[in-house]
Structure to design on (189 residues):
C-alpha cells in the first residue's frame, strides 16, 4: 500500500440531535456490556459503501459518479429502530442501531453506488447491505442479550429525518481512532 493512497467511504450524514440520543443509548448499553470501543458521536454516519484505499487520481471519477447518482436519486425520509449485532448475538463484535423507515431507499441507493463504483474498479459487496449506525465494536466476541437491553430502557423508535445528500469521506487512521474528512457532498433531488 502506498502511503499517499486515500482510504475512502461513501455515507449519509445523520443529524447532530440524533447523535445525542445515541449517546444516551450507548450509556445504558455500556453499563450492561462493559468493555468495548464505543463510537464517538462525531464518527457516526450511515455508510453506503466502503471503498478502501485508492489513488488520489481516482477521486475525480468517484466524484463524477456520485454527483450523477445523487442527481438521479430522490431525497427520502428515514428513522432508526431496534438494536442488532454482527455477526450474531452469541459472538457479537459490533452493536448497532438499525434503520426502519427509509430502509429500502438506503438499500437501493447503496446498490446503485456499488454498481457505479464497481465500474471504477472497486470490488462489489459480497454481503447484503444492512443500513445501521455502529454504536460499539468488541475486540473479542461477546454474548449480547438484545431483549435484556430492551428491558433496560433502550427503546429506539425515533422521529423521521430527511436524507438530502450523500458524502465522500477520507478516513485517516490514528492510534486513538479514525478521523473523517469530507471530500465532497452530493445533493439528491
Amino acid at each position: 500500500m502506498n502511503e499517499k493512497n486515500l482510504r475512502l467511504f461513501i455515507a449519509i450524514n445523520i443529524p447532530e440531535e440524533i447523535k445525542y440520543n445515541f449517546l444516551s443509548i450507548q450509556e445504558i448499553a455500556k453499563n450492561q456490556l462493559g468493555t468495548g470501543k464505543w463510537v464517538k458521536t462525531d464518527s457516526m454516519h450511515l455508510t453506503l459503501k466502503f471503498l478502501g484505499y485508492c489513488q488520489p487520481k481516482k477521486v475525480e471519477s468517484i466524484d463524477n459518479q456520485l454527483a450523477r447518482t445523487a442527481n438521479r436519486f430522490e431525497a427520502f425520509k428515514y428513522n432508526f429502530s431496534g438494536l442488532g449485532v454482527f455477526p450474531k448475538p452469541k459472538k457479537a463484535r459490533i452493536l448497532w442501531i438499525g434503520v426502519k423507515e427509509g430502509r429500502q431507499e438506503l438499500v437501493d441507493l447503496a446498490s446503485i453506488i456499488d454498481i457505479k463504483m464497481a465500474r471504477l474498479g472497486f470490488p462489489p459487496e459480497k454481503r447484503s447491505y444492512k443500513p445501521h449506525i455502529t454504536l460499539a465494536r468488541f475486540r473479542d466476541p461477546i454474548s449480547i442479550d438484545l431483549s435484556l437491553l430492551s428491558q433496560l430502557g433502550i427503546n429506539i423508535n425515533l422521529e423521521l429525518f430527511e436524507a438530502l445528500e450523500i458524502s465522500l469521506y477520507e478516513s485517516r487512521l490514528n492510534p486513538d481512532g479514525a478521523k473523517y474528512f469530507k471530500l465532497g457532498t452530493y445533493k439528491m433531488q
Q: What stands out?
A: The chain has one domain: 6-187. The first strand starts at residue 6 and ends at 13. The mean pLDDT is 92.
